[in-house]
């Protein structure tokens, strides 16, 4: 059974809305270094980085990874 273009459109919309709310773990890992750098530079957290923050609060797996990234970046910035 083939999907009508209307059904496909609705499906795509659904997927896009889901992505706006929640970040997957690989996506979170992708943006994580940017997020850590923003924190270290006291940059504003917005857009996708705000979703990274939300994901880190909900996902202990990524949170552990993030702690390592933050420590590594922090150590690199030490003179
Ligand atoms: Zn995660």
Bound molecules: zinc ion
* Helix amount: over 70%
Record field, number of beta strands: 0
**Cα-to-Cα separation, first versus last residue:** 63 Å
Rg over C-alpha atoms, rounded to the nearest angstrom: 17 Å
Molecular structure report:
With 79 residues, the protein is mostly helical. It is built from four helices and no strands. α2 packs across α3, α2 runs parallel beside α4 (60-77) and α3 packs across α4. The radius of gyration is 17 Å and the shape is elongated. The structure holds zinc ion. The site of zinc ion has 6 residues, from α2 and α4.
SSE layout and pairings?
Layout lengths: L4 H17 L3 H16 L7 H11 L1 H18 L2
Helix pairs in contact: 2-3, 2-4, 3-4
The structure holds zinc ion (ZN).
The site of zinc ion has 6 residues, from helix 2 and helix 4.
Descriptive terms for the model:
binds zinc ion; 79 residues; 78% helix; mainly alpha
Summed up:
The protein has helices at residues 5-21, 25-40, 48-58, 60-77.
């Amino acid at each position: 059974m083939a999907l009508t273009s209307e059904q496909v459109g609705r499906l795509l919309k659904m997927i896009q809305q889901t992505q706006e709310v929640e970040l997957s773990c690989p996506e979170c890992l992708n943006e994580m270094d940017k997020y850590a750098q923003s924190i270290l530079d006291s940059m504003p957290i917005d857009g996708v980085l705000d979703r990274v923050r939300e994901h880190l609060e909900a996902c202990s797996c990524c949170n552990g990874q993030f702690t390592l990234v933050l420590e590594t970046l922090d150590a690199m910035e030490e003179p």
